[in-house]
UniProtKB/TrEMBL annotation:
InterPro entries: AAA+_ATPase, ABC_transporter-like_ATP-bd, ABC_transporter-like_CS, P-loop_NTPase. The keyword Transferase does not apply. GO terms for molecular function: ATP binding. It holds the Pfam family ABC_tran. Belongs to the ABC transporter superfamily. The keyword ATP-binding applies. This is ATP-binding cassette domain-containing protein. Keywords: ATP-binding, Nucleotide-binding, Transport. Residues 3-233 form the ABC transporter domain. It comes from Streptacidiphilus jeojiensis.
Length: 247
């Protein structure tokens, strides 16, 4: 398993953002759903080694991220799209992605090809020389995805990757996700249950810092009942599981 989590918590002052999560994730695409404030970003940030846990056990790529040497290695081998990445507005698309290739210690002889491949995979080849400040929000999101995949990560963590993407790009992205999931462990946090239904083999639903459902998208859809709100079976399943967790 590339992610092994036992009784993980994260507290920010008085707020318990993650309140005891157990999770094991292996290769494939794993969807993380949940309402605003459920703790998805906090959980992803711990998986990305961006914040340490308050308590519990976390192993990534079979290593302990609490130790300096293993943490460096994990960081080299993972890709992370944060919810709000910092962009350098004066960088071109290619410069920005190359910067992450340097951070990830992609071998110099492979960097040029790795950058071009990552940019092509998000369909920005024709904008590779454009400065970031001239791009639309959806294009910037795609640049963020390109930096996350430039090192061909074994562990890929994407926080709301489809936010701002137009419908055509979302369809393209889902197919990229399925492709990436052939080799890597991919965790995607999203509010769009259609993305989960289309691209994820497994899904967890978080609420108030805990996992309240863990299974397949079909299993989540089957959790719906006649009363649950939603336009699709999986939306009804989502609503029903949340209502039950809160009752
Ligand atoms: N750095 C922080 N300092 C203080 N509180 C925080 C911090 N980060 C997260 N929180 C709190 O932790 C809780 C979980 O937030 P988190 O961003 O993990 O949720 P989320 O599921 O990603 O939400 P959303 O869907 O709105 O992005 C919220 O109550 C939030 O206010």
């Amino acid at each position: 398993m590339n992610i092994e989590i036992t009784d993980l918590t994260r507290r920010f002052g008085a707020v318990q953002a993650v309140a005891g999560v157990d999770l094991q994730v292996g290769p494939g695409v794993f969807g993380l759903l949940g309402p605003n404030g459920a703790g998805k970003t906090s959980l992803l940030r711990m998986m990305a080694t961006a914040v340490p846990p308050s308590s519990g056990r976390l192993r990534l790529l079979d290593r302990d991220p609490g130790r300096y040497g293993p943490r460096r290695e994990i960081r080299r081998r993972l890709g992370y799209l944060p919810q709000n990445p910092g962009y350098y507005p004066g960088f071109t698309v290619a410069e920005y992605v190359e910067y992450f290739a340097l951070l990830k210690e992609v071998p110099p002889a492979r960097t040029r090809a790795a950058v071009a491949t990552a940019i092509d995979r998000v369909e920005l080849g024709d904008r590779r020389k454009a400065r970031l400040r001239t791009l639309s929000g959806g294009m910037l999101r795609r640049v963020g995805i390109a930096q996350a995949i430039v090192n061909e990560p074994e562990l890929l963590l994407l926080d709301e990757p489809t936010a701002g993407l137009d419908p055509e790009q979302r369809v393209t992205f889902r197919s990229l996700l399925r492709d990436l999931g052939q080799r890597a462990t991919v965790v995607v946090s999203t509010h769009l249950v259609e993305d989960v239904a289309a691209a994820c083999a497994r899904v967890a639903l978080m609420d108030r810092g805990r996992i309240v459902f863990h299974g397949t998208p079909d299993g989540l859809a089957a959790s719906g009942d006649g009363q649950a709100a939603g336009d699709t079976p999986i939306e009804r399943g989502y609503s029903a599981v949340l209502a039950q967790a809160r009752s």
